[in-house]
Predict the structure.
Amino acid sequence: MKVMIVEDEMILSDAYSQVLKAANMEVMRAYNGQEALEMLSVEAPNVVLLDLRMPILDGIGFLKGLQMSRKVPDMKVIIFSNYDDQAEIDEAFSLGARHYILKSWASPDDLIRVVREVGLATQTA
Amino acid sequence: MNHDDVQSNKKVSGRVTPEKKLSDELQEISRTKEEFVAIASHQLRTPATAVKQYLGMLLQGYAGSVTALQMDMLQKAYESNERQIDIINQILDATRADMGKLTINKVDFDMCELIESVVAEQKPLIKSHGHRLKSEIPNVPIVYFGDKGYLRMVFENLLNNADKYTQPRGLISVKLSKSAGQIIVEVSDTGVGIAKDDIGKLFIKFSRIQNELSVKAGGSGVGLYIAQEIVKLHGGDIGVKSVLAKGSSFEVRLSDAKE
Protein backbone atom coordinates (compact mmCIF):
# COMPACT_ATOMS: atom_id res chain seq x y z
CA MET A 1 0.00 0.00 0.00
CA LYS A 2 1.26 3.49 -0.85
CA VAL A 3 0.54 6.31 1.61
CA MET A 4 1.11 10.02 1.11
CA ILE A 5 1.84 11.91 4.35
CA VAL A 6 0.89 15.60 4.07
CA GLU A 7 2.33 17.19 7.23
CA ASP A 8 4.27 20.40 7.82
CA GLU A 9 5.80 19.39 11.19
CA MET A 10 9.00 17.56 10.21
CA ILE A 11 9.30 15.64 13.47
CA LEU A 12 5.79 14.19 13.03
CA SER A 13 6.28 13.50 9.32
CA ASP A 14 9.49 11.60 10.19
CA ALA A 15 7.73 9.56 12.89
CA TYR A 16 4.71 8.62 10.73
CA SER A 17 7.02 7.71 7.85
CA GLN A 18 9.01 5.34 10.09
CA VAL A 19 5.83 3.76 11.47
CA LEU A 20 4.28 3.16 8.05
CA LYS A 21 7.52 1.87 6.49
CA ALA A 22 7.89 -0.56 9.41
CA ALA A 23 4.44 -1.85 8.40
CA ASN A 24 5.79 -2.44 4.85
CA MET A 25 3.96 0.48 3.30
CA GLU A 26 5.45 2.78 0.67
CA VAL A 27 5.55 6.39 1.78
CA MET A 28 5.38 9.68 -0.14
CA ARG A 29 5.84 12.92 1.80
CA ALA A 30 4.57 16.42 1.16
CA TYR A 31 4.87 19.38 3.55
CA ASN A 32 1.83 21.37 2.51
CA GLY A 33 -1.31 20.98 0.44
CA GLN A 34 0.16 22.65 -2.66
CA GLU A 35 3.11 20.25 -2.77
CA ALA A 36 0.74 17.32 -2.24
CA LEU A 37 -1.45 18.32 -5.22
CA GLU A 38 1.65 18.67 -7.43
CA MET A 39 2.88 15.23 -6.39
CA LEU A 40 -0.53 13.71 -7.05
CA SER A 41 -0.39 14.86 -10.65
CA VAL A 42 2.62 12.56 -11.10
CA GLU A 43 1.82 9.60 -8.85
CA ALA A 44 -1.28 8.57 -6.91
CA PRO A 45 -1.08 6.89 -3.50
CA ASN A 46 -3.75 4.54 -2.12
CA VAL A 47 -4.30 6.71 0.97
CA VAL A 48 -3.54 10.32 1.91
CA LEU A 49 -2.81 11.14 5.55
CA LEU A 50 -3.70 14.82 5.64
CA ASP A 51 -2.90 17.45 8.27
CA LEU A 52 -5.34 20.35 8.37
CA ARG A 53 -3.33 23.41 9.37
CA MET A 54 -0.37 23.89 7.04
CA PRO A 55 1.29 26.89 5.38
CA ILE A 56 0.86 27.78 1.68
CA LEU A 57 -2.18 25.50 1.21
CA ASP A 58 -3.98 23.92 4.18
CA GLY A 59 -5.88 20.63 4.36
CA ILE A 60 -9.23 22.10 3.33
CA GLY A 61 -7.52 23.84 0.41
CA PHE A 62 -5.96 20.52 -0.64
CA LEU A 63 -9.36 18.77 -0.54
CA LYS A 64 -10.93 21.52 -2.65
CA GLY A 65 -8.03 21.32 -5.11
CA LEU A 66 -8.39 17.54 -5.26
CA GLN A 67 -12.12 17.85 -6.01
CA MET A 68 -11.55 20.40 -8.76
CA SER A 69 -8.71 18.53 -10.42
CA ARG A 70 -10.75 15.30 -10.79
CA LYS A 71 -7.41 13.58 -11.52
CA VAL A 72 -7.80 11.10 -8.71
CA PRO A 73 -11.50 10.51 -8.15
CA ASP A 74 -12.47 8.96 -4.81
CA MET A 75 -9.01 9.40 -3.26
CA LYS A 76 -9.06 7.95 0.24
CA VAL A 77 -8.16 10.80 2.57
CA ILE A 78 -7.69 10.46 6.33
CA ILE A 79 -7.71 13.75 8.21
CA PHE A 80 -4.92 13.52 10.76
CA SER A 81 -4.91 16.63 12.93
CA ASN A 82 -4.45 17.97 16.43
CA TYR A 83 -7.16 20.55 15.76
CA ASP A 84 -10.54 19.12 16.72
CA ASP A 85 -12.68 21.97 15.45
CA GLN A 86 -16.01 20.32 14.59
CA ALA A 87 -16.90 22.79 11.82
CA GLU A 88 -13.57 22.19 10.11
CA ILE A 89 -13.92 18.41 10.43
CA ASP A 90 -17.46 18.57 8.99
CA GLU A 91 -16.18 20.63 6.07
CA ALA A 92 -13.42 18.11 5.42
CA PHE A 93 -15.95 15.25 5.34
CA SER A 94 -18.22 17.22 3.01
CA LEU A 95 -15.20 17.58 0.67
CA GLY A 96 -14.68 13.81 0.56
CA ALA A 97 -12.45 12.94 3.53
CA ARG A 98 -13.11 9.36 4.74
CA HIS A 99 -11.89 9.36 8.32
CA TYR A 100 -10.66 11.70 11.04
CA ILE A 101 -7.99 10.88 13.62
CA LEU A 102 -6.88 13.13 16.47
CA LYS A 103 -3.10 12.82 16.22
CA SER A 104 -2.49 12.81 19.97
CA TRP A 105 -4.89 9.86 20.35
CA ALA A 106 -3.16 7.56 17.84
CA SER A 107 -0.40 5.16 18.87
CA PRO A 108 1.77 3.71 16.06
CA ASP A 109 -0.46 0.61 15.99
CA ASP A 110 -3.61 2.76 15.79
CA LEU A 111 -2.14 4.66 12.84
CA ILE A 112 -1.30 1.46 10.93
CA ARG A 113 -4.69 -0.07 11.66
CA VAL A 114 -6.68 2.94 10.46
CA VAL A 115 -4.56 3.40 7.32
CA ARG A 116 -5.02 -0.29 6.45
CA GLU A 117 -8.79 -0.18 7.13
CA VAL A 118 -9.33 2.90 4.99
CA GLY A 119 -6.92 1.75 2.31
CA LEU A 120 -8.54 -1.64 1.95
CA ALA A 121 -12.14 -0.41 2.17
CA THR A 122 -13.94 -1.07 -1.11
CA GLN A 123 -15.92 1.58 -2.90
CA THR A 124 -19.68 1.57 -2.40
CA ALA A 125 -22.00 2.73 -5.17
CA MET B 1 -37.34 67.75 8.88
CA ASN B 2 -34.70 70.37 7.91
CA HIS B 3 -31.08 69.93 6.78
CA ASP B 4 -29.72 70.21 10.33
CA ASP B 5 -32.08 67.51 11.60
CA VAL B 6 -30.90 65.18 8.85
CA GLN B 7 -27.28 65.92 9.72
CA SER B 8 -28.08 65.43 13.41
CA ASN B 9 -29.76 62.08 12.66
CA LYS B 10 -26.75 61.01 10.61
CA LYS B 11 -24.49 61.71 13.58
CA VAL B 12 -26.76 59.79 15.98
CA SER B 13 -26.94 56.81 13.63
CA GLY B 14 -23.15 56.74 13.23
CA ARG B 15 -22.37 56.95 16.95
CA VAL B 16 -21.40 53.78 18.75
CA THR B 17 -23.46 53.44 21.90
CA PRO B 18 -21.74 52.25 25.11
CA GLU B 19 -23.85 49.08 24.99
CA LYS B 20 -22.76 48.31 21.41
CA LYS B 21 -19.12 49.02 22.31
CA LEU B 22 -19.31 46.62 25.27
CA SER B 23 -21.02 43.98 23.15
CA ASP B 24 -18.32 44.31 20.46
CA GLU B 25 -15.57 44.05 23.08
CA LEU B 26 -17.15 40.96 24.65
CA GLN B 27 -17.46 39.33 21.23
CA GLU B 28 -13.81 40.13 20.54
CA ILE B 29 -12.80 38.55 23.87
CA SER B 30 -14.85 35.48 23.02
CA ARG B 31 -13.23 35.24 19.56
CA THR B 32 -9.77 35.63 21.10
CA LYS B 33 -10.55 32.94 23.66
CA GLU B 34 -11.79 30.62 20.93
CA GLU B 35 -8.69 31.23 18.83
CA PHE B 36 -6.51 30.61 21.90
CA VAL B 37 -8.22 27.26 22.47
CA ALA B 38 -7.64 26.28 18.82
CA ILE B 39 -3.98 27.31 18.85
CA ALA B 40 -3.25 25.92 22.33
CA SER B 41 -4.83 22.59 21.43
CA HIS B 42 -2.52 22.28 18.46
CA GLN B 43 0.65 23.70 20.04
CA LEU B 44 0.34 21.67 23.24
CA ARG B 45 -0.65 18.45 21.53
CA THR B 46 2.04 18.47 18.80
CA PRO B 47 5.13 17.76 20.94
CA ALA B 48 3.17 15.27 23.05
CA THR B 49 2.14 13.53 19.80
CA ALA B 50 5.76 13.21 18.68
CA VAL B 51 6.74 11.77 22.08
CA LYS B 52 3.84 9.30 21.87
CA GLN B 53 4.90 8.07 18.42
CA TYR B 54 8.60 7.62 19.27
CA LEU B 55 8.00 6.00 22.67
CA GLY B 56 5.33 3.83 21.08
CA MET B 57 7.79 2.69 18.42
CA LEU B 58 10.45 1.87 21.02
CA LEU B 59 7.92 -0.04 23.14
CA GLN B 60 6.68 -2.01 20.15
CA GLY B 61 10.22 -3.02 19.15
CA TYR B 62 10.51 -0.90 15.99
CA ALA B 63 14.11 -0.08 16.97
CA GLY B 64 14.96 -3.59 18.12
CA SER B 65 14.38 -5.41 21.38
CA VAL B 66 14.68 -3.64 24.72
CA THR B 67 15.67 -4.98 28.12
CA ALA B 68 13.08 -5.43 30.84
CA LEU B 69 14.41 -2.40 32.66
CA GLN B 70 14.30 -0.27 29.49
CA MET B 71 10.73 -1.50 28.84
CA ASP B 72 9.71 -0.46 32.36
CA MET B 73 11.23 3.01 31.95
CA LEU B 74 9.72 3.50 28.50
CA GLN B 75 6.30 2.35 29.73
CA LYS B 76 6.39 4.85 32.58
CA ALA B 77 7.40 7.65 30.20
CA TYR B 78 4.61 6.62 27.76
CA GLU B 79 1.99 6.59 30.53
CA SER B 80 3.16 9.93 31.83
CA ASN B 81 2.87 11.42 28.35
CA GLU B 82 -0.64 9.93 28.03
CA ARG B 83 -1.61 11.64 31.30
CA GLN B 84 -0.27 14.91 29.95
CA ILE B 85 -2.36 14.50 26.79
CA ASP B 86 -5.42 13.75 28.93
CA ILE B 87 -4.86 16.87 31.01
CA ILE B 88 -4.49 19.02 27.88
CA ASN B 89 -7.72 17.54 26.48
CA GLN B 90 -9.56 18.11 29.77
CA ILE B 91 -8.48 21.73 30.04
CA LEU B 92 -9.51 22.38 26.44
CA ASP B 93 -12.88 20.69 27.01
CA ALA B 94 -13.41 22.74 30.16
CA THR B 95 -12.66 25.95 28.22
CA ARG B 96 -15.09 24.92 25.49
CA ALA B 97 -17.73 24.11 28.11
CA ASP B 98 -17.19 27.58 29.58
CA MET B 99 -17.80 29.16 26.19
CA GLY B 100 -20.85 26.99 25.57
CA LYS B 101 -18.97 25.36 22.69
CA LEU B 102 -18.97 21.78 23.93
CA THR B 103 -21.00 20.00 21.27
CA ILE B 104 -22.44 16.53 21.72
CA ASN B 105 -23.26 14.13 18.89
CA LYS B 106 -26.11 11.83 19.86
CA VAL B 107 -26.57 8.28 18.61
CA ASP B 108 -28.48 5.26 19.95
CA PHE B 109 -26.21 2.94 21.91
CA ASP B 110 -26.46 0.25 24.58
CA MET B 111 -25.62 1.76 27.99
CA CYS B 112 -24.94 -1.73 29.42
CA GLU B 113 -22.24 -2.29 26.83
CA LEU B 114 -20.68 1.11 27.55
CA ILE B 115 -20.55 0.57 31.32
CA GLU B 116 -19.17 -2.96 30.87
CA SER B 117 -16.48 -1.58 28.61
CA VAL B 118 -15.50 1.19 31.03
CA VAL B 119 -15.37 -1.27 33.95
CA ALA B 120 -13.26 -3.74 31.92
CA GLU B 121 -10.85 -0.97 30.93
CA GLN B 122 -10.41 0.37 34.47
CA LYS B 123 -10.36 -3.06 36.16
CA PRO B 124 -6.60 -3.77 35.87
CA LEU B 125 -5.65 -0.45 37.47
CA ILE B 126 -8.27 -0.77 40.22
CA LYS B 127 -7.20 -4.33 41.00
CA SER B 128 -3.54 -3.27 41.02
CA HIS B 129 -4.40 -1.02 43.99
CA GLY B 130 -5.78 -4.01 45.84
CA HIS B 131 -9.39 -2.84 45.55
CA ARG B 132 -12.38 -5.11 45.06
CA LEU B 133 -14.52 -4.13 42.09
CA LYS B 134 -18.21 -4.99 41.97
CA SER B 135 -20.50 -4.26 39.05
CA GLU B 136 -24.26 -4.67 38.66
CA ILE B 137 -25.24 -4.36 35.02
CA PRO B 138 -28.56 -5.67 33.65
CA ASN B 139 -28.55 -8.57 31.19
CA VAL B 140 -30.93 -6.82 28.80
CA PRO B 141 -29.78 -3.85 26.69
CA ILE B 142 -30.63 -0.35 27.85
CA VAL B 143 -30.69 1.81 24.74
CA TYR B 144 -29.83 5.43 25.27
CA PHE B 145 -29.70 8.33 22.80
CA GLY B 146 -26.60 10.31 23.69
CA ASP B 147 -22.95 11.07 22.97
CA LYS B 148 -21.28 7.76 23.74
CA GLY B 149 -17.74 9.18 23.66
CA TYR B 150 -18.42 12.02 26.07
CA LEU B 151 -20.50 9.86 28.42
CA ARG B 152 -17.66 7.36 28.45
CA MET B 153 -15.42 10.20 29.70
CA VAL B 154 -17.91 10.89 32.51
CA PHE B 155 -17.97 7.30 33.76
CA GLU B 156 -14.20 6.89 33.36
CA ASN B 157 -13.72 10.02 35.46
CA LEU B 158 -16.03 8.80 38.25
CA LEU B 159 -14.43 5.36 38.36
CA ASN B 160 -10.95 6.86 38.24
CA ASN B 161 -11.77 9.19 41.15
CA ALA B 162 -13.22 6.29 43.16
CA ASP B 163 -9.95 4.43 42.63
CA LYS B 164 -7.73 7.43 43.46
CA TYR B 165 -9.58 8.46 46.60
CA THR B 166 -9.86 5.01 48.17
CA GLN B 167 -7.09 3.57 50.30
CA PRO B 168 -5.73 0.19 49.14
CA ARG B 169 -8.00 -2.84 49.51
CA GLY B 170 -11.20 -0.82 49.39
CA LEU B 171 -14.43 -1.62 47.56
CA ILE B 172 -15.55 0.13 44.40
CA SER B 173 -19.02 -0.57 43.00
CA VAL B 174 -20.69 0.34 39.73
CA LYS B 175 -24.43 -0.09 39.33
CA LEU B 176 -26.52 0.58 36.22
CA SER B 177 -30.29 0.64 36.54
CA LYS B 178 -33.36 1.96 34.83
CA SER B 179 -36.40 3.14 36.73
CA ALA B 180 -39.29 5.58 36.36
CA GLY B 181 -38.07 7.02 33.06
CA GLN B 182 -34.50 7.44 34.28
CA ILE B 183 -31.25 5.69 33.59
CA ILE B 184 -29.04 5.75 36.65
CA VAL B 185 -25.33 4.98 36.87
CA GLU B 186 -24.01 4.87 40.42
CA VAL B 187 -20.30 4.73 41.25
CA SER B 188 -19.57 4.13 44.95
CA ASP B 189 -16.45 3.65 46.99
CA THR B 190 -15.31 3.03 50.56
CA GLY B 191 -12.75 5.80 50.31
CA VAL B 192 -11.81 8.96 52.19
CA GLY B 193 -15.22 10.56 51.72
CA ILE B 194 -16.04 14.23 51.36
CA ALA B 195 -17.04 16.68 54.09
CA LYS B 196 -20.57 18.05 53.75
CA ASP B 197 -19.24 21.61 53.31
CA ASP B 198 -16.96 20.52 50.47
CA ILE B 199 -19.57 18.74 48.35
CA GLY B 200 -20.63 22.02 46.72
CA LYS B 201 -17.03 22.67 45.64
CA LEU B 202 -16.64 19.36 43.81
CA PHE B 203 -17.92 20.57 40.45
CA ILE B 204 -16.10 23.90 40.44
CA LYS B 205 -13.29 24.21 37.88
CA PHE B 206 -9.78 23.76 39.31
CA SER B 207 -11.19 23.16 42.78
CA ARG B 208 -9.33 20.42 44.67
CA ILE B 209 -10.66 19.12 47.97
CA GLN B 210 -7.75 18.51 50.32
CA ASN B 211 -7.52 15.10 51.95
CA GLU B 212 -4.89 12.47 52.71
CA LEU B 213 -4.95 11.19 49.10
CA SER B 214 -5.35 14.42 47.09
CA VAL B 215 -1.61 15.13 46.63
CA LYS B 216 -0.91 11.64 45.30
CA ALA B 217 -4.09 11.68 43.17
CA GLY B 218 -2.88 14.54 40.94
CA GLY B 219 -5.07 15.53 38.00
CA SER B 220 -6.16 18.76 36.35
CA GLY B 221 -8.99 19.69 38.73
CA VAL B 222 -11.54 19.97 35.92
CA GLY B 223 -12.67 16.35 35.53
CA LEU B 224 -15.86 16.64 37.58
CA TYR B 225 -16.62 20.09 36.12
CA ILE B 226 -16.51 18.63 32.59
CA ALA B 227 -18.45 15.54 33.70
CA GLN B 228 -21.25 17.71 35.05
CA GLU B 229 -21.33 19.89 31.89
CA ILE B 230 -21.58 16.78 29.69
CA VAL B 231 -24.39 15.32 31.80
CA LYS B 232 -26.21 18.68 31.82
CA LEU B 233 -25.98 18.82 28.01
CA HIS B 234 -27.84 15.49 28.07
CA GLY B 235 -30.51 16.99 30.32
CA GLY B 236 -29.32 15.00 33.32
CA ASP B 237 -27.57 15.64 36.62
CA ILE B 238 -25.01 14.17 39.01
CA GLY B 239 -25.93 13.59 42.64
CA VAL B 240 -23.38 13.08 45.41
CA LYS B 241 -23.67 11.39 48.80
CA SER B 242 -20.66 11.05 51.05
CA VAL B 243 -19.55 10.44 54.60
CA LEU B 244 -16.04 11.38 55.71
CA ALA B 245 -13.80 8.34 56.18
CA LYS B 246 -16.59 6.01 55.00
CA GLY B 247 -16.86 6.65 51.28
CA SER B 248 -18.77 8.38 48.51
CA SER B 249 -21.43 7.66 45.94
CA PHE B 250 -21.82 9.57 42.67
CA GLU B 251 -25.08 9.06 40.82
CA VAL B 252 -25.51 10.07 37.16
CA ARG B 253 -29.19 10.42 36.32
CA LEU B 254 -30.27 10.61 32.67
CA SER B 255 -33.76 10.74 31.25
CA ASP B 256 -34.46 7.84 28.89
CA ALA B 257 -36.80 9.99 26.76
CA LYS B 258 -35.30 10.51 23.29
CA GLU B 259 -34.73 14.24 22.65
Summary: Residues 1-11 of chain B have pLDDT under 50 and may be disordered. Residues 20 and 173 of chain B are 54 Å apart (CA to CA). Chain B has seven helices and seven strands.
